[in-house]
Amino acid sequence: MRILLVKTSSLGDVIHNLPVVSDLRLSFPEARIDWCVEEAFADIPRLHAAVDQVIPVAVRRWRGNLGRLSTWREIGDFRRRIGGTDYQLVLDTQGLLKSALIARQANGRHCGYAAEAAREPLAARFYDATFVIPRNVHAVQRNRWLAAAALDYPLELPLDYGISAPAPETAWLKEERLAILLTATSRDDKLWDEQHWCAVAMALREGGLIPVLPAGNVLERQRAERIAAVVDGAIAAPPLSLPQIATLMARASLAIGVDTGLAHLAAALRVPVIALYIASEPALTGVYGTGFVRNLGHPGAPPSVHQVLSVVEQALR
């Protein structure tokens, strides 16, 4: 059996789809599982040993370059690659018109959410079979239930993200207990107060942990450097790829982050994680896993430093 999963973005959504691969591997040990994903997140499916081929797509980049001949050549190459294999199942767990149209480029039985369950109801028109999956459950469960319905296997499988971090390449770090502080997110209204981060970092340092602050761009790095500058021993991390961040995470005793895909990566790696919600609701898309996971805060009610440090004590106990 050959199966293609279509979950292209964003980072958190891609991580939420990893347990589907584990479920498929348990239910169909001989199946070959491919995954179509946005190029920026292609390293995440590669962390799962059961993924055979990763097929990158570049819709985000192509949208801004449709006037270039090179873009149309890339699109043609992508269509030939994704259309060059016959799949028994093409499963779109994203439920967007974009993802449904991408899925249609592959050969096979196309399955996805029914109109009343999809994030964009129009997507359901492009599937050969659709399934009504409750909207009021966590995104991880929705993905898993959709796959189970499409392939008719039991729902009671253990939750397993199935990934492991690459071998350590962190020569810039000493062999000490680390706490990863994920201060950056995609929207400014999701940011936690910088002074709060300084207070938490100081408390962690006093507790014998080294706060490490990754960053993805210049503004994020400047914030990380400001926080690290006021906390003796804290480290603003150098630029890191997704696999390198996974390696860093796997070494950590704790991760604390705002609403960002990297907090979900920590949960997937079974690192104790505390996620802070300032402008978004965590009920259906918060951190979720079998290790120590806590979602704190709600829109209009961000967590306090005291709340965070109380949960830190629980996580490290």
From TrEMBL:
Q: Which residue spans adopt a coiled-coil conformation according to this UniProt entry? A: none
Secretion signal, residue range per the UniProt entry = none
Question: Which compartment or compartments is the protein found in?
Answer: Cell inner membrane
Query: According to its UniProt record, which protein family does this protein belong to?
Result: Belongs to the glycosyltransferase 9 family.
Q: A Gene Ontology CC term for this entry?
A: cytosol
Pathway assigned in UniProt: Bacterial outer membrane biogenesis; LPS core biosynthesis
| Segments traversing the membrane | none
Q: List its EC numbers.
A: 2.4.99.23
Q: Which organism is it from?
A: Candidatus Accumulibacter affinis
Extract one GO molecular function annotation from the record. Answer: ADP-heptose-lipopolysaccharide heptosyltransferase activity
Q: What is this protein called?
A: Lipopolysaccharide heptosyltransferase 1
A single GO BP:
lipopolysaccharide core region biosynthetic process
Keyword vocabulary terms for this entry:
Cell inner membrane, Cell membrane, Glycosyltransferase, Lipopolysaccharide biosynthesis, Membrane, Transferase
Instruction: Read off the PANTHER family from this record.
Output: LIPOPOLYSACCHARIDE HEPTOSYLTRANSFERASE 1, TETRAACYLDISACCHARIDE 4'-KINASE-RELATED
- Which reaction equation describes what this protein catalyses? an alpha-Kdo-(2->4)-alpha-Kdo-(2->6)-lipid A + ADP-L-glycero-beta-D-manno-heptose = an L-alpha-D-Hep-(1->5)-[alpha-Kdo-(2->4)]-alpha-Kdo-(2->6)-lipid A + ADP + H(+)
Q: Gene3D superfamilies in the record, alphabetically?
A: Glycogen Phosphorylase B (3.40.50.2000)
Record carries keyword Transferase: yes
Topology relative to the lipid bilayer, per the entry, is:
Peripheral membrane protein
